[in-house]
Amino acid sequence: MDAMSTAAPDSTALNTQPPLLGGVHHVAYRCRDAKETVEWYGRVLGMAYTTAFAEDHVPSTGAFDPYMHVFLDAGAGNVLAFFELPNQPEMGRDPATPAWVQHLAFKVADEATLLRAKAHIEAQGIDVLGPTWHGLFKSIYFFDPNGHRLELACDIGTAEQVEMARAVAPAMLEEWAQTRRAPRHAAWLHAQPDEGNQA
């Protein structure tokens, strides 16, 4: 074996391609109370509490900031996590961003499941908005005890409709970048069937 074959790879050559991702490992949000959050997600959405990390010092930075980091099974290999940070100022949200913008959406099997979920969530005393029509899917919306907006969505679009939306997406992005006005390429997504415009 010659010296060339045992040399370390050139790091610049390794960084010329984006990584091949294997999905989302977990998504982490802040919570006010870890125990309350775990119990709420179990009761309202059936998520199993699987793991907890707790340290006084943040592993990545070394900073002293005691935390409880809890992990919940969101189904299909997806994980939702929360941090409780008792030494930090009370949590808030970006006042310049409307409450409906930042949210976490979970998939359910079909419209019947979506409607059953709505009934269950409302029975917990939680306000639920929807179902809302989005052309390719229908959704309901509600808030967790930390003020995070959640969505449950069921797919309703056909394969042809999904492909139609995909085909016009580049042109829509380009038009938006130029005008900052809503492009009309996929206006059919927002027209409910009884309005006579379903694609």
From TrEMBL:
InterPro entries, sorted: Glyas_Bleomycin-R_OHBP_Dase (IPR029068), Glyas_Fos-R_dOase_dom (IPR004360), GlyoxalaseI/FosfomycinResist (IPR050383), VOC_core (IPR037523), Xdiol_ring_cleave_dOase_1/2 (IPR000486)
UniProt KW Membrane keyword: no
Cofactor: Fe(2+)
Pfam families, sorted: Glyoxalase (PF00903)
Keyword match Manganese: no
Protein family membership: Belongs to the extradiol ring-cleavage dioxygenase family.
Name assigned to this protein: Catechol 2,3-dioxygenase-like lactoylglutathione lyase family enzyme
